[in-house]
Amino acid sequence: QQQVKQSPQSLIVQKGGISIINCAYENTAFDYFPWYQQFPGKGPALLIAIRPDVSEKKEGRFTISFNKSAKQFSLHIMDSQPGDSATYFCAASPSGGTSYGKLTFGQGTILTVHP
Amino acid sequence: DTAVSQTPKYLVTQMGNDKSIKCEQNLGHDTMYWYKQDSKKFLKIMFSYNNKELIINETVPNRFSPKSPDKAHLNLHINSLELGDSAVYFCASTMTSNYEQYFGPGTRLTVT
Q: What is the Cα–Cα distance from A109 to A90, expressed in whole angstroms?
């Protein structure tokens, strides 16, 4: 059962454009929502993360928007660059209990930024 | 300096063999994980250890046995390898108080 659904599966954006990737979750116990960036042949790298006490978090060109009532969160990449071309994963985990730190990942989005 | 390292990077072996993957972190973290990434790039948690104690044990065949000799190391031993075990295995680590998980470079296991 897929608890975190990510869309789109792939995304093509022109340089300078905005890339938007969406995720929806089901488990209301989730309260930590990170995004990871993975380049071919490399491990996932933590990009940015949010807790449900805020609706938006921005770090440089990367912004997470969080809608607790809709159980949705999204990643916005402003001024997308060819170097941003990678696979992006959203994830979610609870903060307590025996499932602490158990990240559930979305299916991934392959982002291609054309020069 | 490598934060989370894994050895080997590539592992090619035949069905039925037993193999091990090693992970080390120099971040001072107290929790370590094993994840499996399949051919469709889907990432799924397998195990987690906190201070050498097994915390998370997902529905993984008992041919997979993790071992944590100390907080900085987490190894994964796989017995009687099967074709379906072919995947990329990632180690990750975090501090319990922090949530941020840092991943290693992965070990690509190919079972022929």
A: 9
CA atoms of A82 and A17, how far apart (whole Å): 11
| Whether residue B103 has pLDDT greater than 80 | yes
How many angstroms separate the CA of residue A28 from the nearest CA in chain B? Answer: 17
pLDDT of residue B99: 82
The encoded tokens of residue A46 equal 């933590």
Tokens of A102: 């158990």
- Whether B63 has a pLDDT exceeding 80, the answer reads yes
Q: Computed over its alpha carbons, how large is the radius of gyration of chain B?
A: 13
Q: Which pLDDT value is given to residue A98?
A: 64
What is the DSSP code (8-state) at residue A25?
E
* Pairing assessment for the beta strands B102-103 and B87-94 based on DSSP bridges: antiparallel
Give yes or no for B42 touching A (CB within 8 A): yes
CB contact under 8 A, B103 and A98: no
**The pair of three-digit structure tokens given for residue A39, joined into one six-digit string:** 């380049």
3-state class (DSSP) for residue B107: strand
The arithmetic mean of pLDDT across residues B50-58, rounded, is 84
Contact A52, B99 (CB under 8 A): no
DSSP B8-31: -SEEEE-TT--EEEEEEE-S--SE
Mean predicted confidence (pLDDT) in B86-102: 91
B45 vs A43, A87, A102: nearest CB: A102
Query: What is the rounded distance in angstroms from the CA atom of residue A107 to the CA atom of residue A89?
Result: 7
Strand-pair category, B107-111 with B10-13: parallel
pLDDT, position A101: 76
